[in-house]
Amino acid sequence: MKKLRVMHVIIGNGFGGLENVMLDLVRQGDRERFEYFILCLSTPDVIRDKLEASGATVLDLGYGEGFHPGLALAIRKVINEHGIDVVHSHDYKPFFYTTLGCLGKRGLAKVYTEHSSILSMSRKHQHIGRLFARFTDAMVMVSRHLQQYWADPVGLPAERSLVIHNGIDVRLFDHPEDGETLKREFGLEGKLVIGTALRLNEQKGLQYLVAAAPAVKERFPDARFLVIGEGPLRDDLATRTRTLGVDDVFLFPGYRSDVSRILPAFDIYVLPSLWEGLPLGMIEAMLAKLPIVATTVGGVPEVLVDRDTALLVPPADSEALGEALCHLADSADLRRIMGERGRGHALAEYSLQKMVTTYETLYHDILAAK
Q: Do the Cβ atoms of 25 and 361 come closer than 8 Å?
């Protein structure tokens, strides 16, 4: 039987939850039925090695920021040259150009997954997104919050989209390394580690974590903040920590490809985001039995139960964030109980195989209907 050719379209100039989900779809997909391609609109940077190790055919178009009229035709050319059966775009920019490039291609299954980009789009771009949904076979949302946002204010009726939650390979968390040994890698032996792993950009609200740090430092002098990741705000965040006198309790070790391995070094996981879809790092933290402090944005309250598996606070509220962190820092028993509850919930609801099977069934159903 001829394998179906599935091509994922991403921007490709960074690594975060979106890229992780896409790679899991490729790595865990049924190679007996599918052949995978990954098309990057830009030139891959830190993600190139991961893309190539996935076993997919990796292609890149080398386009940078800004509007590129020729990009849609370049995508169409790739689809034609490689005989693609399913084109699956991730987030707004790939969706925009892929939709234009696929206009008039009747035998092609067109799938879009919204991870969170629509939340930061202008009204003009939202209007374009609603229009382009007409030319897409499946509009997939990673959370019910995103589905509702596309319905109002964007204007796409909820029945024209479906929700597929992100999943995690739980095997990565079955045999954790010793937390104190991992802390030693960062020079944090014996410290209370408040950690996070994310892109250092505006969306993640890290400036509010920095602003919350003085209150935490005053009450818990042995607390340390370990911020894993890279992004455009790294220098700004470092400056903020110096200004507030907390640069001695913050570590910015940069990008790590082994986040699942080093999560046991954390005592508390913090997610201070200003907007989200369904953050993958949050589910990984749950599987690692970490108590979580997170903001009530996007799909976060769909996953975390306040005062059961996490402490939830309003976004952009440094005082509330600091209070929640101190509350967990003050009780090892509470941290343990919340962590165990969180892992149980994540195991039941967010398995990787469930996500992969749902997408593969969707691909087949669309092509069968055509």
A: no
* pLDDT at res. 246: 98
CATH tag, 4-167+351-369: 3.40.50.2000
pLDDT, one tens digit per residue, over 344-361 is 999 988 989 999 999 999
48 neighbors 145 (Cβ within 8 angstroms): no
Domain ranges of the chain: 4-167+351-369, 170-349
Instruction: Check if the beta carbon of residue 51 is closer than 8 Å to that of residue 80.
Output: no
227, 249 Cβ separation under 8 angstroms: no
Question: Could you report the per-residue pLDDT of 49-85, keeping only the tens digit for each?
Answer: 899 999 999 999 998 788 898 999 999 999 999 999 9
The amino acid sitting at 22 is M
DSSP state of 13: S
- Do the domains at 4-167+351-369 and 170-349 have one common CATH topology? yes
Distance of CA 273 to the CA centre of its chain: 12
Q: Which CATH number fits domain 170-349: 3.30.70.3460, 3.90.550.10, 3.20.20.370, 3.40.50.2000?
A: 3.40.50.2000
Integer Cα distance of 36 and 54 in angstroms: 9
In this structure, are residues 141 and 114 in contact, taking their beta carbons and an 8 Å threshold? yes
213 confidence band (pLDDT: 50, 70, 90): very high
Q: Over the stretch 12-56, which tens digit does the pLDDT of each residue have?
A: 987 888 999 999 999 999 999 999 999 999 988 778 889 999 999
Q: Which amino acid is at 149?
A: Y
Of 237, 240, 239, 241, which Cα lies nearest the Cα of 249? 241
Separation of alpha carbons 350 and 342, rounded Å: 11
